[in-house]
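A further point concerns the way the authors explain their paired sequence and structure data. The central task, working out the structure tokens from the amino acid sequence alone, is never made concrete. I therefore recommend that a typical entry be quoted early in the introduction. An entry of this sort, consisting of the sequence and the corresponding backbone structure tokens, reads as follows:
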Amino acid sequence: MNTLTAGTPAPAFTLMNQDNEPVSLSDFKGKKVLAYFYPKAMTPGCTVQACGLRDSKAELDDKNVVVLGISIDPVKRLPKFIERDNLNFTLLSDEDHAVAEQFGVWGLKKVMGREYDGLHRISFLIDENGTIEHVFNKFKTKDHHQVVLDYLNQ
């Protein structure tokens, strides 16, 4: 797994959102984008992480940051996650993990002695010009939003 680093141009991508509409990174020129990759909608850790970002929306808006949650879930699963947890940001489906591979967040995982290829929980702050400004890869799901806000406020 070769995760992209700060200073690297973010890969251009278009994925389907929870409403089965195409969303492209280029749609957000002039804004910062927090592209956060999460393993699976409606699981405990992913729910805690998403709710933290939901509850931080006003602060993120103040910093000109748009949140895009990206998982390998099928499009049809995403509206359920948004509705169940009252999420206020866009979720994107990367079912074939092509975008995850471009960002270097798809690779070998080890969970309870089991090894498999999967999506790693890593977030990228992309600046207004499409360059990766910061990579968040060391955080607990419950603290993710605060780690992002702390970085933005420094």
In short: The mean pLDDT is 96. The radius of gyration is 14 Å.
